[in-house]
C-alpha cells in the first residue's frame, strides 16, 4: 500500500509533528553550522595562510563539492540501513571533525579535514528530505520542509555569526571549536526527539541497480528542471555570501569582522521565508510561488550594487528571502513529484545544489578578482536570470501528483 494513503502519516499540529520538526530543525542546524561557519572567515584565511580569495573559498567549496558527490552513495545506503541511523551517524561525525579542524595547524591539513566534513555531512540533507516525503501527510509536507530549511538557515546563520564575532575577540579557532560543540549538542537532541520511521521499509539493493534508481528521474518532465534550478540558485547565493565580506572589509566600508559577522544574521529572514513559502505553495501552487521567489532573489542581488551600506544589507536580506523561499518550494516539489526512489531524487537535487555551491561559489572569485563586486553581481545576476527562465518553464508543467 502506498504510504501516502496510510493513516500512519504525520499530520500538522500534532505532538509527533512538533517533535519531528524540532528534531530535523536541530539536524539542519548542526549540518549547516559546521559547513558554513568558515564563510565569514575567508578573508582571515586569505591573510593567515597567504592564499588568494578564490583559494580561501576552498574551505567552503571543497566540503560542499564532496558532500554533493557523496549524496549519490549515501541515499541508497539509507534505503538499506534506515533513515534515522544514517542521519545520526552523519551529525556525530561532522561535529567531531569540526572540533579537530579547529586545532590543526596547516592550510592543507585544514582543507583535508574540511573535505572529510563534507563527506560525513552528506548523510543528512537528502535523507531528511526522503524521511519527510515518506512520513508526512500531503498537507503537512510543505510546512515541514519549510521548517527543515528554516533549521538549515538557523544553522547557517549561527555558524557564520558565532565564528565571525569570536574571530575578532578570541580567535577563529576557538570559534570553530564552539561550533563543533554546539553541533554535538544538536545531534543529541536529534537522537532524542526524532520518532522512528513508520512508513519506511528497508530493502536490499544490489549496487548494479543503483544507476537505474537514479536514471529514471531524468525521464520525468519536471524533475531535471528542478535539479538545474538547485544548481543555479545555490551557486549564485553562495557567491554573494562568499565575497561580500571581502567587499565590506575594504574601503569605503572598512567594517570589522564582528560587524560583518552580524550582517550574516539576515539569515533570520530565510528562517521566516522558508515555512511561509511552503504554506503559500500549498495554498497557491508551487508553479506560481517558485518563479516569484526567484525574481525576488534577483532583485536583491541587483540592489547590492549600491555603495550605501543600508541598501546593501537590505539587498542581502531580499536575496536571502528569495533564495530560501525558492529552495523550500523546489525541494518539496522534488519529494512530491518523485513516485519512487525518493531518497535518490532528493540526493540528485542536493548533489546539484552543493555542486553549484562548490563550482559556482569558487568561480565567483575570478569575477571578484577581475571586476570587483560589479563582476560578482553580473555573474550571479546571470545565474538567477537563467533560474527565473527555468522557474517560468516549470510554471507551465503538467501536474503529475505534484
From TrEMBL:
List where the protein spans the membrane: 21-38, 58-74, 86-105, 111-133, 140-162, 174-194, 223-244, 256-277, 289-306, 312-335, 347-369, 375-394
What InterPro entries does its record include? Answer: MFS (IPR011701), MFS_dom (IPR020846), MFS_trans_sf (IPR036259), Sugar_transporter_CS (IPR005829)
Keywords assigned by UniProt? Cell membrane, Membrane, Transmembrane, Transmembrane helix, Transport
Q: Which SUPFAM superfamilies match?
A: MFS general substrate transporter
Where does the source fall among the domains of life? Bacteria
Name the source organism: Methylobacterium phyllostachyos
Query: What are the Major facilitator superfamily (MFS) profile domain coordinates in residue numbering?
Result: 16-399
Protein name according to UniProt = MFS transporter, YNFM family, putative membrane transport protein
Q: What is its main location?
A: membrane
Q: Which lineage?
A: Bacteria, Pseudomonadati, Pseudomonadota, Alphaproteobacteria, Hyphomicrobiales
Subcellular localization(s) per the UniProt record: Cell membrane
Amino acid at each position: 500500500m502506498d504510504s501516502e494513503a496510510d493513516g500512519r502519516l504525520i499530520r500538522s499540529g500534532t505532538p509527533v509533528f512538533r517533535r519531528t520538526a524540532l528534531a530535523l530543525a536541530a539536524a539542519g542546524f548542526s549540518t549547516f553550522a559546521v559547513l558554513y561557519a568558515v564563510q565569514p572567515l575567508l578573508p582571515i584565511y586569505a591573510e593567515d595562510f597567504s592564499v588568494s580569495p578564490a583559494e580561501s573559498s576552498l574551505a567552503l567549496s571543497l566540503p560542499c563539492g564532496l558532500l554533493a558527490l557523496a549524496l549519490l552513495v549515501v541515499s541508497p545506503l539509507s534505503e538499506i540501513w534506515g533513515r534515522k541511523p544514517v542521519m545520526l551517524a552523519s551529525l556525530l561525525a561532522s561535529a567531531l571533525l569540526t572540533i579537530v579542524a579547529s586545532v590543526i595547524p596547516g592550510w592543507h591539513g585544514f582543507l583535508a579535514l574540511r573535505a572529510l566534513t563534507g563527506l560525513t555531512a552528506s548523510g543528512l540533507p537528502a535523507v531528511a528530505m526522503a524521511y519527510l516525503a515518506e512520513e508526512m501527510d500531503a498537507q503537512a509536507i510543505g510546512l515541514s520542509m519549510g521548517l527543515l530549511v528554516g533549521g538549515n538557515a538557523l544553522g547557517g546563520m549561527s555558524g557564520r555569526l558565532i565564528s565571525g564575532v569570536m574571530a575578532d575577540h578570541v580567535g577563529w579557532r576557538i570559534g570553530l571549536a564552539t561550533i563543533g560543540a554546539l553541533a554535538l549538542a544538536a545531534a543529541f537532541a536529534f537522537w532524542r526527539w526524532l520518532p522512528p520511521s513508520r512508513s519506511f521499509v528497508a530493502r536490499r539493493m544490489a549496487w548494479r541497480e543503483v544507476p537505474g534508481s537514479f536514471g529514471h528521474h531524468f525521464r520525468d518532465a519536471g524533475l531535471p528542471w528542478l535539479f538545474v534550478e538547485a544548481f543555479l540558485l545555490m551557486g549564485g547565493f553562495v557567491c554573494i555570501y562568499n565575497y561580500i565580506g571581502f567587499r565590506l572589509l575594504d574601503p569605503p566600508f572598512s567594517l570589522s569582522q564582528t560587524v560583518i559577522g552580524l550582517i550574516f544574521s539576515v539569515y533570520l529572514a530565510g528562517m521566516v521565508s522558508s515555512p511561509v513559502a511552503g504554506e503559500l505553495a500549498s495554498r497557491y501552487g508551487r508553479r506560481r510561488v517558485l518563479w516569484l521567489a526567484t525574481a525576488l532573489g534577483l532583485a536583491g542581488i541587483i540592489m547590492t550594487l549600491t555603495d550605501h551600506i543600508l541598501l546593501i544589507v537590505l539587498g542581502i536580506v531580499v536575496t536571502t528571502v528569495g533564495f530560501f523561499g525558492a529552495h523550500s518550494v523546489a525541494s518539496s516539489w522534488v519529494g512530491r513529484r518523485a513516485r519512487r526512489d525518493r531518497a535518490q531524487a532528493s540526493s540528485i537535487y542536493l548533489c546539484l545544489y552543493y555542486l553549484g555551491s562548490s563550482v559556482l561559489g569558487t568561480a565567483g572569485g575570478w569575477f571578484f578578482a577581475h571586476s570587483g563586486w560589479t563582476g560578482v553581481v553580473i555573474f550571479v545576476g546571470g545565474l538567477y536570470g537563467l533560474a527565473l527562465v527555468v522557474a517560468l518553464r516549470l510554471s507551465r508543467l503538467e501536474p503529475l501528483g505534484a
